Amino acid sequence: MNLIVDLGNTRVKCAIFNDEDSIINIIIKPKRYLFKVVSDLLSNHEISSAILSNTSVPDEGTLKMLKALKNFIHLNELTKIPIKNEYGTPSTLGKDRIAAAVAASLRFPREHVLFIDMGTCITMNFITSSGGFVGGNIHPGIYMRLKAMHKFSARLPLAEINVCEDFFGTSTVKALQNGAIKGAFMEIDTFIQLTLNKFGPIKVLLTGGDANLFENWTKNEIFVAPNLVMEGLNEILKYNAKKN
Fold this sequence. Notes:
The protein is an alpha/beta fold.
């Protein structure tokens, strides 16, 4: 079995994949629980391989446990991946973006794929039909937009994430929601259309915590993949195990 550990700035996300590449366990916890979560998973499952993708620094105890496994990868820009990375600055490329690119390419081989991650930031990324990750754009996420308007103004409230049905915001809160949420939706829809115009037929993959909001709003044909990053990390782990 493969253990996938994705350590972000505020939380840790862990998944276990079986030999059929199905997720049999997925855990999301605040990052302070990293050691306990990994320790419990290693104790309760027959795990032989693991990959760690981290934004924040992992503790030494967790690293020691993972390094004791038969196969362990600490993902960085030098890690071998099953696609071509054509990004201009690979050392600054987010590990979640390259992992999602791997998963997107394998889901739709020999097709252009636009994959969109609606998390803290909204990233819109493109991989060509020849399996080359070109890059994309990074936009403020929905909560980030709402929080910024509240923080950097004297009187605007912090609005909740709620898709307003009104075309015009008939209250300050609804106006903020329309601007932040529907504004983000329109950006994504426009980017999808521009990509279609430039490259022709594409597949559009959607992931991230706010993906369901856009899924229910857009008229574009999209495929939702909630665990795209974890799937990609698992594929990178498998690819390197074969290489070795």
